[in-house]
Fold each of these.
Amino acid sequence: MFKDESGPIETFEWGVYRIRGRKYGKDVRIVGSDASKWKERKGHELTPDMITGIDGQDVEVLIIGNGVNRQLHCPESIRNAVLEMGIKDLVVLPTPDACRLYNELYSKGTKTAMLAHGTC
């Protein structure tokens, strides 16, 4: 689905990411080059309390990967929560596209974070 050996996100396939040589399962959080499991995501309706691990990280752009088939719904309350954290921009994309954009912005030096759902 996604492959870019030059970026922090090297590959993404259904439910599996490889980030800086390490594998991660279904849901992932990445800030700069630091990745971790995004365990707060529950169900397919994103809520502000699921937006974790990025507040206070000096992030300019938050990318949300809403799944391969775009099944993770991102209501307007998420945009408001992100703005309240001081993040300037929120981008919601299918997860393969989110990975691509993350690597692109990261390579340009943009302070970027991503929360991504890796299945449906």
Note: The longest strand covers residues 61-66.
Amino acid sequence: MSLADRLAAARRDRDVVSTDRETRPLGGGTPRHRRAGDPFAALKRTVHQTLLDSLGPKLYDSNLTQSELEQQVRTTLQEVLAQDDTPLTVADRARVAQEIADDILGYGPLEPYLRDVDVSEVMVNGFDAIYVERGGRIHEVEGSFADENHLRRTIDKIVARVGRRVDESSPMVDARLPDGSRVNAVIPPLAIDGSLLTIRKFSADPYTVSDLVGFGTLTSDTAAFLERCVQGRLNILVSGGTGAGKTTTLNVLSSFIPGDERVVTIEDAAELQLHQDHVLRLESRPPNIEGKGEVRIRDLVRNALRMRPDRIVVGEIRDAAALDMLQAMNTGHDGSICTVHANSPRDVLSRVETMVLMAGVDLPVRAIREQVSSAVDLIVHLSRFRDGTRHLTHITEVVGMEGDIITLQDIFVFDHSAGFDESGRSLGTLRSTGLRPRFVDKLADSGVYIEPSMLGLEKHGQ
């Protein structure tokens, strides 16, 4: 059948499908607002199907490069559109062509937002509700999928490219796009009102310490202080809530590691971008369809100890791997850095304590706390403010044990006393507490010196 015949056959069938979408209830029976139907939905379905029929196996030809495939798709797409008799303006034709190309070559209606450098997160709350995060704030956008099947096909395409799967027997999946962006998908029956998809975009040009200073996340003094702490091989925990900027801060701290050291990074989804010469990247693996082959963060931490690392950098500790990480810190692997979900520096210690207990070891709580206090030197805590900005709010030293309690000492704390401006942005800043860290002498023994000006001690008369 010729291209024209396929197009004519598809056109005969396309008018039976209404372009008006039905309103679907959200959980609790609240109706989702009605969106205007896409006037070109039927045309896009027709051209899309005709294009697939025309190209066929070429879309999966491993001998074709990505640029060659894109060229073939766009050439055939223009031929198909030229033979359709639907009246279109030049702008409408270009838009339809771009949306169909995005669907075949990329991830459909998500492509414009994945290309947008100002978008940091894309959230799909069902086929007809897409939200994005820009500048720390969430906005609903006009794009949408044609239906639930369209969304499911896009999710399948994403996870299949990285060797993962998602179906009714395994309805949740964590994956990443080829560029490193993190993906989480949940489908029915777990997602009651339709499939859910969340993509945290990966920055091709990662933020540097000067970027974070410019954003107000930290000050130049605290940046210089943290650089000396990393160079002095202190064990550091980076903590904060979801979206607080832990991974970005971890990447910046890791950039302070001297270039002649052997660094092993361990992550669930590889995000860290270190530019040192001697970096070995490890990534965990979920179980396969038979439930076998899983490689956990804990397994990778244990294995990293056999790789002669100078530093171990862990993307996130969330389970019994905490015990192995503490053991590593306490057995000569100084200078390790990792992130932990927590609401405050004090909560970090409780979280680590709980995760150690998850390992199933029969240790008294005091013994665990002694391990934590001797292993961890510094906690760097971040928070996401109500205006969407991220700020480093605490730099806290782990001093040691006092009875059964781990004692902490704040070195820098965010000062909220300045209040907020008219737009709700915080006017506060990170300030020194005037306290001298106990590890200053330890760093000096390693040839790393922290000037009093970095700590603001001159202002406090010390």
Note: The first helix runs from residue 3 to 14.
